[in-house]
Specification:
CATH superfamily of the largest domain: Response regulator
Helix content: 40-55%
CATH architecture of the largest domain: 3-Layer(aba) Sandwich
Strand content: 15-25%
Radius of gyration: 17 Å
CATH class of the largest domain: Alpha Beta
Distance between the termini: 48 Å
Structural class: alpha/beta
Largest sheet: 5 strands, parallel
Order of helices and strands: EHEHEEEHEHEHHHH
Strand order of the largest sheet: 2-1-3-6-7
CATH topology of the largest domain: Rossmann fold
Number of strands: 7
Number of domains: 2
Oligomer: single chain
Amino acid sequence: MQPVPKHSHQDDTPTLLLVDDDEAFCRVLREALAKRGFNVYVAYDLAEAISISAEHLPEYAVVDLRIGNESGLELVSKLVALDEHTRIIMLTGYASVATAVEAIKLGATHYLTKPADANEIVAALRREAGDSTVPVAEKPLSVKRLEWEHLQKILLAHHGNISAAARALKMHRRTLQRKLSKHPVRE
């Protein structure tokens, strides 16, 4: 099957790929984005996302960092390979400096933390440049947040392999899994 070229819709509605394993979240966000003028395609895993992207070449994508046991970072690079002009937002409840840097290096346009509403997502999709007026934090990160960031960096360096990351950190694999299953502290 030949890919459908961009802007092939009769009404020229921009296409957006939404990728998240949370079906309820996708249903709500899909409706909100459709109301804001997007033709939204939803995928719940990487294979489905790649198939939809190859067929529809979306202009925009909103990709969760954790899609089941898969990494949204992998999808970012695949979406860029299909079309380097796709504007990609990495969206996550497990934000870290390491994953933010990698997402941008791989081709994501922006990196947003959950909860993010449809207005924030649309604003990020349409924003063309960085913002030098973003306030700098008043205080450094807490020790707990620094630990979270370090664990994420080591896990990323070992391509998501928890056993290899645990060996590198000289800790038991279950201990690392327990630490990773907790949501990161904000500061």
